[in-house]
Amino acid sequence: MLQLLYRSVLRLHPPAFRGRFAEEMLAIFDQVQGTRPKFSLLMDGIVSLLRQWALRPEFWHEISRSSAVQPTTDGIPTFSTLDAFRPRTYAVINGMVLSVVLFCVTGFAIRYSWIHVLHVHIPRVVFEDQSSIQPNASPADFRGKAASSGRTPVLPVAPPTAPGAMFTSAHPPEVRVATDGTTPPAVDANTSTAQIGEASSLSTLTLTTIPANHLASYTGTYVSQSPNMTIVIAAEGGHLMMRVAGEPQRTLVPVSSTRFVVLDVEDSWIAFAHDSHGTIRQLELVQNGQSFTAQRQ
Amino acid sequence: MKDDPSTFLPLSPATLHILLSLAGEDLHGYAIMQEVARQSEGKYNIGPGTLYDNLQKLIKRKLVEVPGRRPGDDDPRRRYYRLTSLGRGVLAAEAARLAGVVREARLRLRMAKPRRA
User: Fold this and answer.
1) How distant is the alpha carbon of residue B107 from its chain centre?
2) What pLDDT was estimated at residue A153?
3) What is the rounded distance in angstroms from the CA atom of residue A68 to the CA atom of residue A70?
4) Are A203 and A124 in contact (CB under 8 A)?
5) In a domain, B117, yes or no
6) Is B91 on the interface with A (CB under 8 A)?
7) Cβ atoms of residues A235 and A219 within 8 Å
8) How far is the C-alpha of A55 from the C-alpha of A70, rounded, in Å?
9) Taking Cα atoms as reference points, which of A240, A237, A238, A244 lies closest to residue A222?
10) Which of A17, A21, A50 is most worth mutating to test chain B (most B CB atoms within 10 A of its CB)?
């Protein structure tokens, strides 16, 4: 009975102490004769138990070399560390705090960049006055005029994603033209105005007009190889119309001499490109964030 | 600096007796307990809990080492302990310190002896 109690007391000792000394303590207990000396050993064991847990924390996890190394029985090598590694408590706390801080900073940076990408400020673009446009002017004339005046060209021919371009993100903002129906706004000698951008940023964009006799320079058949698609640009009623096989005819609203918004289609616009002689050679159709380039036939 | 025996002083009574027991030969735990009782003429006894708690600290401080078990021993569970050279130096330093304490005590007691008129 006493031996069972003593064995239980030994089993409750810290693993390192138990692995190293329990067998010897039990051997001593077995060697001692008499109930009273055994009872004294039992009391000594209880005091030792309290001492080891309360006053010897440095030995709690110390690995006994004799108990840590397990012999190989099936030929498969086993590996174990002879050093008892235990990270310091304050090092663990520091690591936790740093991890939380790093996580918060990263999350804030992602949120900050996400918000500022969506809310791109679109500057007000002012186009040339209609009166200064010659009736037979081509897109190249617009550039030449701006260059000769020593000012920055106000009708950019750069790709849409270039700095200063009309749309600075891959998804142009919705264009809401101040008109009803599917017909484009009536274009007179003056310019008309459309609001562009999200409701939160009511940046205004001044629409330009293309003379009716100049629209012919855009018309024609444009063919895209990838994907295989034919786009027909025609002039009807003083406006450019776009026809794609399988889709209804769309009206193009000019926002510059080379850029047209596709009416009634969200996030869709066309950019024409011309050669050095000012002749339109290809167009780029952007629709739902996808871009298609078609060569003029 | 850690191997300087004076850094381990003063020793607790249990540690002193354990080192003193191992000064003669390698002993197992039960023999150390018996040797401590013999040295103190039965006035100081240590139990296994105290013994192995001190041995644990002495092994970590490299004052005592464990050469291993002896094949011919009666009980294979017994493990023998040996005093290291550092442990022997610590024991010598403690003995010298205690000798100085005893000398000082005798001197003071002699001076305090009442004189007869």
Assistant:
1) 26
2) 41
3) 6
4) yes
5) no
6) no
7) yes
8) 29
9) A244
10) A21
Residues whose CB falls within 8 Å of the CB of residue A6, separated by 6 or more in sequence, listed in order: A26, A29, A38, A41, A42, A45
Residue A29 · residue A40 · CB < 8 Å? no
CATH of the domain at B14: 1.10.10.10
**B2 part of a folded domain:** no
Q: Residue B23 falls within a domain, yes or no?
A: yes
Calculate the CA dihedral of residues A106, A107, A112, A118 and round it to 10 degrees: 120
Domain of residue B23, residue span: 10-111
Contacts of A114 (CB under 8 A, 6+ apart): none
Residue pair A156/A166 in contact by the 8 Å Cβ criterion: yes
| Residue of chain B nearest A31, judged by CA positions | B30
3-class DSSP assignment, residue A127:
coil
Domain residue limits, chain A: 2-68, 130-296
Q: What is the pLDDT of residue A167?
A: 40
Q: Are A172 and A269 in contact (CB under 8 A)?
A: yes
Cβ-proximal residues to B5 (8 Å cutoff; 6+ apart), any chain = B86, B89, B90, B92, B93
Q: A269 versus A85: which is more confidently predicted? A: A269
Single out the residue of A160, A180, A178, A179 nearest to residue A170, CA to CA: A160
pLDDT, tens digit, for every residue of A49-58?
A: 998 888 888 7
Say yes or no: B49 contacts chain A, CB-CB below 8 A. Answer: yes
In a domain, B107, yes or no: yes
- Whether the CB of B56 is below 8 Å from some CB of chain A: the reply is yes
Name the fold adopted by A130-296. Answer: Lipocalin (2.40.128)
How close, in Å, is residue B73 to chain A by CA atoms?
12
Output A264-272 pairs: Cβ under 8 A, ≥24 positions apart.
A264/A182, A266/A174, A267/A171, A267/A172, A267/A174, A269/A160, A269/A167, A269/A172, A269/A175, A270/A242, A271/A159, A271/A160, A272/A139, A272/A218
The number of helices, as runs of H, and strands, as runs of E, in chain B is 4, 3
Provide mean pLDDT across the span A19-39.
88
Q: Number of structural domains, chain B?
A: 1
How far apart, in whole angstroms, are the C-alpha atoms of residue A277 and residue A294? 19
CB contact under 8 A, B29 and A28: yes
* pLDDT score for A211: 81
